[in-house]
């Protein structure tokens, strides 16, 4: 009888350890918790849309010398592995700096979410094929930082050294599971 009890205790201990490990990896409680972020928009006045897209370097200045910005690219998010809505807009300021503004984002919360610009197309690489949403870490990317919140509006500075010419999409990326939650075609 003692031998059986020891076996059941060992099995129970393994099951508890497996459950704790699964909870730590998957963090399922995040499905029930939203992180709302409502960062204000940049104060520079939008004076137009750049004709050259992401690589356009011209920024018209305001006649009164106030800071201005132009839209380099803009797109709506589409669903990836999770339902995602909102808008991604990339701007160039009159001082030459660039930033991404994500407006009215709605997506699932998850572990280890980040915002990237990538050279991969928005929408995965093929409809319905295996791992079509896991392609975004396979090519060139500019990593802008952790997602500040899964709901609301937020801003991300783009490094001055970043080459935007090959970039085609903004991605809400889950590093833990190597999958896109949502993407927006900007190039």
Your description of this structure?
By secondary structure, this protein is mostly beta strands. It has one domain: Sandwich (Immunoglobulin-like). 13% of the residues lie in helices and 37% in strands. The protein is built from 1 helix and 11 strands. The strands form 2 sheets. A 6-stranded mixed sheet has the order 1-9-6-5-3-2, with no helix packed on it. Strand 5 and strand 6 form a beta hairpin. The protein starts with a helix and ends with a strand. The model has no long low-confidence stretch (mean pLDDT 86). Keywords: Membrane, Transmembrane, Transmembrane helix.
Strand and helix map with partners:
Elements: H1 2-26, E1 36-38, E2 45-49, E3 68-76, E4 78-79, E5 85-93, E6 98-106, E7 113-118, E8 141-146, E9 151-158, E10 169-174, E11 179-185
Parallel strand pairs: 1-9, 2-3
Antiparallel strand pairs: 3-5, 4-11, 5-6, 6-9, 7-8, 7-10, 10-11
Keywords: Membrane, Transmembrane, Transmembrane helix
Protein name: DM13 domain-containing protein
Organism: Nocardioides albidus
């Amino acid at each position: 009888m003692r031998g059986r009890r020891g076996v059941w205790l060992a099995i129970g201990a393994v099951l508890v350890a497996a459950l704790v490990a699964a909870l730590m990896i998957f963090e399922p409680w995040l499905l029930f918790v939203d992180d709302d972020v409502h960062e204000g928009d940049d104060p520079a006045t939008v004076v137009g849309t750049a004709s050259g897209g992401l690589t356009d370097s011209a920024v018209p200045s305001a006649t009164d010398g106030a800071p201005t910005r132009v839209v380099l690219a803009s797109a709506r998010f589409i669903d990836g592995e999770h339902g995602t809505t909102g808008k991604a807009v990339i701007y160039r300021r009159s001082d030459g700096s660039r930033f991404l503004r994500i407006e009215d984002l709605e997506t699932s919360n998850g572990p280890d979410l980040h915002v990237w610009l990538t050279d991969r197309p928005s929408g995965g690489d093929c409809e319905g094929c295996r791992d079509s949403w896991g392609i975004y870490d396979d090519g060139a990317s500019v990593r802008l930082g952790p997602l500040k919140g899964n709901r609301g509006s937020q801003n991300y500075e783009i490094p001055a050294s970043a080459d935007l010419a090959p970039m085609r999409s903004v991605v809400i990326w889950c590093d833990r599971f190597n999958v896109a939650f949502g993407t927006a075609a900007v190039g």
